[in-house]
Each structure stands twice: as structure tokens, then as C-alpha cells.
Amino acid sequence: MSELERLYKAESDPEVKERLLLVLKVEEDGMVPSRVAEELLHRSRTWASEWMARYRQEGVDGLKTRPKSGRPPDIPPEVALRIQKKLKESKQGWTTRQAYELIVKESGVKYHHKHIYKVLHRWGFKQKVPRKVHINTASDEEKESFKKGRGKS
Fold this sequence. Notes:
Layout: H1 3-10, H2 14-27, H3 33-40, H4 45-58, H5 77-89, H6 96-107, H7 113-122, H8 140-151
Helix pairs in contact: 1-2, 3-4, 5-6, 6-7
């Protein structure tokens, strides 16, 4: 087993594993990078070229995901964890208004009300919205009950 194969099997990060597979197919199996990208990985030719270039310049370390630059979060991580914990503990759920008020109270940071949705999504929360129940999701007895009740009118 080659070093690349060993690294591929040991890798736990799916993105790095995908890049290692690209390199493995190109370097050891002699495949064309664009073909590996398009046919096996469903990626673009550009994607393959960029990752192969990074591999050739930096080796296997070049395939690892680098930290991205960008604006740091307004809410410190420890405060964000405290807010998330309080939101998770709520038995009856919460509105975005309540989440906003909690964020302001705990961190002093004021976001636009529309941005609260993005913050909550980033933290892994999903919006709960009542939806109509489709008839095909009803149980057989519910369907029968509906048919009987409908025929009486």
C-alpha cells in the first residue's frame, strides 16, 4: 500500500479525503485530473487544477483546508455557547424576537432582526413553521375516518 493510499484511508475530513482521492487517481493510476474531477468526483476542471497545483507545490499538507480570513464574530464564542445553551433548554421554544432579546441581554450585540435568522441558522437552529399536513401522510384509519365523515353530509 502506498503512502497516498494509507493517508486516504486514515483521513477523517471528507473534503481532504476527496482531494486525496483526486491526487491518488492522478498520481498512481495515471488518470487525467479533469476526468477524475468530472466523472468520479462530480467537480469542475478548475477545482481539479487548483488542488493538483497546491499538491505539487506543498505536498499533502497543501490539500488540507486552511482557515479562512474574514470578519471575526461580534459575539465572543463563550458568550455564544451560553446563549445557545439557553435557547436549547427552552421547553416551549422561542421566537426570533425572544432570541434577539437574549442575544442583546447576554452579549450587548444588536443585530438587525433579519440577521437573527442567519445567526440562529449558523448555530444549528432551524425555524419551526406550522405546515399543512398532506393527505398522503395520514394513517389508514385517519383516511377512512375522513371518508366516512365526508359521506355523511
